[in-house]
Amino acid sequence: MSAVEEKLAELGLTLPEVVPPLASYQPAVRSGVYVYTAGQLPMVEGKLPVTGKVGAEVTAEEAKELARTCALNALAAVKSVTGDLDRIARVVKVVGFVASAADFTGQPGVVNGASELLGEVLGDKGVHARSAVGVAVLPLDAPVEVEIQVELVQ
Predict the structure, then answer these.
(1) 108 within 8 A of 95, measured Cβ to Cβ
(2) For residue range 35-65, what is the model confidence (pLDDT) as tens digits?
(3) What are phi and psi of 71, to 5 degrees?
């Protein structure tokens, strides 16, 4: 087991299976020393635990937990192309999309769920640049979607 997966276990988390694509794309691709993930939904065992807009059907706190799940799914996607999460030199960028009610403005707090998980699991290697974007709707009516870019150890 890798050191990253040992840290996940210490946190009471396990790396899930890679979420299968919903359309014509790959969950992650490698280009040189970088891995780019597709947007990861908060799927748990092939299902969304909740659907709807944040600030309406879904609370900001629920959405923050869902963003953690998205980040965990993104790490699984990274492992699918690297074979070992210990190859991560650092997380470079995180982009979070939040399906938002018209008056919801707490997107950064929601995406903190993903950022905080990456920091807990990877320490200083998890510090990254980030965007948190409110959108009208996401695939399958998911409340949140997260993609990451990581640099690998050379």
Answers:
(1) no
(2) 999 999 999 999 999 999 999 999 999 999 9
(3) -65, -40
Model-level pTM? Answer: 0.97
Return the half-sphere exposure (C-beta side, CA atoms, 13 A cut-off) of residue 132.
Answer: 18
Q: Give the position of tokens 């309406």.
A: 56
How many residues in the chain? 154
Give the Cα separation of 72 and 13 in Å (integer).
9
What would the pLDDT profile of 78-99 be if each residue is shown by its tens digit? 999 999 999 999 999 999 999 9
